[in-house]
């Protein structure tokens, strides 16, 4: 494959590069803030992951056959638009999505959940280079990766936050399952889900939501994430990374497969009124 390669080719929203023999970088550039729309997820993000996996598996098979261990290594860096330092991803286009009457029934089971499933089961390590704010679905996207390197926030503010509580929206079961699997303890998950706390980089690190804080801008974050990727890439050589992730995150995978309808606050209040 010749790099860089962009998806979709007619209107690129994601670009994949291959800066070293073992590292791929997936850059999301759906505008400056990388809203997670249906087109972005189905026509750009998932095809980009497929392209990386296809290339790595070709290398892996060749490396195993030739006893060339280096070919079996691999890792991915996932980063927000590199032309800015403000957003990793601003989550779903909630206002736009709710104009679609099929959104509540189709978006999560058919579009968002499969994208998160790809990350949670990906066969080589994925490092999220969190180069700015990661809100709601954007935070889940980062948490579904294997490692997170976040900007230090010294150049501009950067927060991780599930802000649904602040605008009266239910966080769907699969998203909660991802957060439960990746948050360090019950107190942290309470702050994330029930308080909608805006975690600074320092707070995210101390709470175990990210693994490293590094770099005041996108270039610094990507550099640190690539360094981590090079370090963990050899773990992929056995071919068991994705297999073991499927066992480790079995509860998440089962939650992603469930088509659970959300409850809005008005309907919940009406049910309570009838009950009381």
Would you mind describing this structure in some detail?
GO terms for molecular function: delta(3)-delta(2)-enoyl-CoA isomerase activity. Belongs to the enoyl-CoA hydratase/isomerase family. InterPro entries: ClpP/crotonase-like_dom_sf, Enoyl-CoA_hyd/isom_CS, Enoyl-CoA_hydra/iso. The strands form two sheets. The chain has a seven-stranded mixed beta sheet. The mean pLDDT is 93. The protein is built from eleven helices and ten strands. With 276 residues, it is an alpha/beta fold. Helix 1 (38-66) links the parallel strand 3 and strand 4. The chain has one domain: 2-enoyl-CoA Hydratase, Chain A, domain 1 (Alpha-Beta Complex), CATH 3.90.226.10. Helix 3 (103-120) runs antiparallel to helix 10. The chain has helices spanning 38-66, 94-97, 103-120, 137-143, 173-182, 186-193, 201-206, 218-232, 241-248, 250-257, 265-275, and strands at 5-7, 14-17, 23-28, 75-79, 87-89, 126-130, 133-135, 147-150, 160-161, 212-213.
């Amino acid at each position: 494959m010749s790099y860089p390669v962009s998806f979709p080719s007619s209107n690129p929203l994601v670009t994949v590069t291959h800066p070293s023999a073992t590292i791929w970088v997936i850059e999301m550039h759906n505008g400056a803030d990388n809203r997670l729309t249906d087109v972005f997820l189905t026509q750009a993000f998932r095809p980009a992951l497929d392209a990386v996996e296809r290339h790595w598996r070709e290398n892996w098979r060749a490396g195993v056959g030739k006893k060339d261990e280096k070919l079996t290594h691999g890792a991915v860096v996932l980063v927000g638009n590199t032309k800015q330092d403000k957003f990793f991803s601003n989550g779903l286009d909630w206002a736009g999505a709710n104009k679609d009457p099929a959104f509540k029934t189709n978006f999560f089971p058919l579009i968002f959940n499969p994208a998160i499933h790809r990350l949670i089961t990906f066969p080589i390590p994925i490092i999220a280079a969190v180069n700015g704010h990661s809100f709601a679905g954007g935070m889940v996207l980062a948490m579904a990766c294997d490692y997170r390197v976040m900007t230090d926030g010294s150049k501009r503010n950067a927060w991780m936050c599930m802000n649904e509580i602040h605008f009266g929206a239910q966080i769907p079961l699969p998203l909660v399952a991802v957060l439960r699997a990746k948050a360090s303890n019950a107190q942290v998950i309470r702050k994330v889900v029930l308080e909608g706390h805006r975690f600074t980089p320092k707070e995210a690190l101390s709470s175990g939501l990210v693994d490293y804080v590094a770099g005041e801008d996108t270039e610094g974050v990507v550099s640190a994430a690539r360094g981590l990727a090079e370090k963990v890439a050899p773990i992929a050589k056995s071919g068991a990374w994705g297999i073991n992730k499927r066992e480790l995150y079995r509860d998440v995978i089962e939650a992603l497969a469930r088509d659970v309808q959300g409850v809005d606050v008005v309907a919940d209040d009406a049910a309570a009124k009838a009950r009381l």
